[in-house]
Design a protein that fits this description.
- The chain is an all-beta fold.
- It has one domain: Jelly Rolls, CATH 2.60.120.
- Helices cover 0% and strands 46% of the residues.
- The chain has a 5-stranded mixed beta sheet, with no helix packed on it. A 4-stranded antiparallel beta sheet has the order 2-9-4-7, with no helix packed on it.
Length: 149
């Protein structure tokens, strides 16, 4: 298990901080330098107090090049030690299959449920490793809809 940081989490690119109930879209990119394995944590962004995840789309191409891609993620809040998700908003999100890629999207509003009184780290956890690795050198793009609620 390793922790992989997005461009925003690594502070190479600025994030979006909403100040109203209007949904802001944060474009988060992750460049992979090694194969993904079961249990990997991908730190996406830090959510300020009051900010909640309303929606998210995950897109990637060639992350799992098997004819029957297995790669799946859970999305939620990373625990303080950075080793797991403390709060899971949704699991079983599949994306990145095949050469042209696939898009996965949240099907629930799990991000609206937890308390948002403190800053939290938004992240992904690999819940099913790629059947055929193609992650190295490829990119995952997450479009996160966040709002101050």
């Amino acid at each position: 298990m390793s922790v992989i940081k997005s461009e925003i989490a690594a502070r190479r690119r600025g994030g979006v901080t909403p100040t109203t109930a209007a949904v802001e879209h944060s474009l988060i990119t992750v460049q992979f330098t090694k194969p993904l394995v079961l249990g990997d944590i991908i730190e996406l962004d830090e959510l300020d107090p009051g900010v909640r995840l309303v929606d998210a789309q995950l897109a990637g191409a060639g992350l799992d090049t098997n004819a029957t891609p297995a790669l799946a993620f859970a999305i939620g809040e990373i625990n303080p030690t950075g080793t797991d998700l403390a709060v899971v908003y949704e699991t079983g999100i599949k994306c990145g299959g095949g050469a042209n890629g696939t898009i996965g999207r949240l099907t629930t509003c799990g991000g609206l449920v937890p308390s948002a009184k403190l800053p939290r780290k938004l992240g992904l956890k690999v819940t099913a490793a790629p059947a055929t690795d193609g992650t190295t050198g490829n990119r995952l793009v997450v479009v996160a809809g966040i709002a101050c609620l």
